[in-house]
Amino acid sequence: MLKANTGSRAWQGMLMCVAGDRVHGEEEFELTVTVREEWCKGCGMCILNCPKEAIYLSRHYNSSGYATVEVDCKKCVFCGNCYTVCPDVVFEIREEV
Asked: Is the model's pTM score more than 0.70?
């Protein structure tokens, strides 16, 4: 499941999924998927295009009244399909060293 990031105001209304440490060459890094709940309109494009069926429509509604999506971190392989197909730029995938 995604965890709410309750840090700075800029991150309010976003959920984050973090992969464990991974090694690329000599450096360790983490992959994160961030879901901007307030931008989500629940269109389902990400759900239809997720090869691991890691994204689903939640029972949570944003301030615009749309049901938002959530990511199952245990299933997510950080492929980027959700980022690519989302018309509302709801997803952010980052690699952090």
From this structure: yes
- CA pair distance 25, 27, nearest whole angstrom: 6
Query: How far apart are the C-alpha atoms of 53 and 50, rounded to whole Å?
Result: 5
Burial level of 9, CB count in 10 A (0-12/13-18/19+)?
exposed
Q: Quick count: other Cβ atoms within 10 Å of Cβ 42?
A: 19
Please list the residues that pair with 36 across neighbouring strands.
14
In tens, the pLDDT along 30-44 reads 888 999 999 999 999
Determine contact, residues 49/86, Cβ cutoff 8 Å.
no
Q: Which has the closest alpha carbon to 33: 46, 42, 23?
A: 46
Q: Positive or negative CA dihedral for 15, 51, 41, 58?
A: negative
pLDDT at 68 over 80: yes
- Tokens standing for residue 82: 């959700």
The conformational region for residue 27 under phi > 0 = left, psi -120 to 50 = alpha, else beta, is: beta
